[in-house]
Design a protein that fits this description.
Layout (H helix, E strand, L loop, with lengths): L2 H51 L33 H6 L10 E8 L6 E2 L7 E4 L2 H12 L4 E6 L19 H12 L4 E6 L12 E2 L5 E2 H18 L3 E4 L6 H11 L6 E8 L6 H7 L27 H13 L3 E5 L5 H10 L4 E5 L1 H12 L5 H15 L3 E4 L2 H10 L1
Parallel strand pairs: 1-3, 1-4, 1-12, 4-5, 5-8, 8-9, 9-10, 10-11, 11-12
Antiparallel strand pairs: 2-3, 6-7
Helix pairs in contact: 4-5, 5-6
Function: Catalyzes an early step in the biosynthesis of tetrapyrroles. Binds two molecules of 5-aminolevulinate per subunit, each at a distinct site, and catalyzes their condensation to form porphobilinogen.
Enzyme class: lyase
GO biological process, one term: chlorophyll biosynthetic process
Length: 409
Amino acid sequence: MSFSSVSSATTTATTTSSSSLSSKRSAKMMMMMKKKQSSSKTMITTITRAAADRPETTRVPPTNPEGMPVVPPQDLASRPRRNRRSQTVRKAFQETILTPDNFIYPIFVHDEGDENIPIGSMPGQDRLSFKTGMIKKVAEARAAGVNQVVVFPKTPDRLKTPCGKEAFNPQGLAQRSISLLKDTFPDLEVYTDVALDPYNTLGHDGMVRSDGVILNDETVYYLCQQAVSQARAGADVISPSDMMDGRVGAIRQALDDEGFTHVSIMSYTAKYNSAYYGPFREALDSAPPPGSEGWKIPKDKAEYQMDPANVRECLRESALDEAEGADIMMVKPAGAYLDIIKMLKDNTTLPISAYQVSGEYSMLKAAAAAGYLNERAAVLESLMAIKRAGADLTLTYYAIDAARWLQDS
């Protein structure tokens, strides 16, 4: 059989499988809608009969608490509490509304066995096994109403090099994961990570010179190859998280030159050198190691990530990213940088995304486990704050749980 015949057969099988899954989901939704309609009719009938049978009475005024002082009403022209007096009124005037459409679910993927591997510092999150674990988790997310994911591959140490060339291997784990996700869920919006730290033996987003300098332009050259390889695999949105100068424009040009003018770029515009990234680096084993003999390896990423003390610097970065062709601009982390989200929102017409990072997730998990917080209420409040500050999209490890909670509320 020729290559084209095999390709055609594979495409047909994939399309048929996807159509079958879509038909099953549609049938299930129709059945649920019919059940809800039947339940609603029964409830309406019951309420109507009860109202018809209820005798008319004079409403009794509410009882005041014992010892309440008798005071004349205040002479107030405006009483804001009137607009908060009932759940119906509060919902009618709610200014910020969260939906599962706002969420992007980050997934960690490994290819060293068929079992998911729990991430110790992120309770409830796993390195998902390629194929089985990944597909099952994404199907779970879609069932909850979350149809956007960002893929982070766990690269085995044996494939890591000082230059991180595995980043643009056409048969790399990231590329295969993207292809499998798009083949299985054609309408899934797949975001990718563009940086060298998961593939770099030195744990940095760029190539490191022996004197500790992170090489900018040489790194950007490889980032362009990485971005194109991800686009070829089927990525919808390329997300450079490296913070190298000029990388957005270079990646945009590289994508356009290869015919990927339809592929978007979500730039990590304001990525701060934050203490909240620790659990993520455990998940991918991507933290900078101690310096080796003869090499001065920077102990952190302060040379290229932004100083948490700075605000105006973000405006400079955002102006550059927008001019270079970014489609979405991100703030990372989210919770401690709501002012930055608001500032970006006020200074650009581009959509804003924010990353509720691993440290934020783990703090909420730990506080909830200790009984200090109501997890559901605290998580939804944190996500509401991020959106209220101006984020159109939020990357969060709570995406599936939050989507379910919103559906139940």
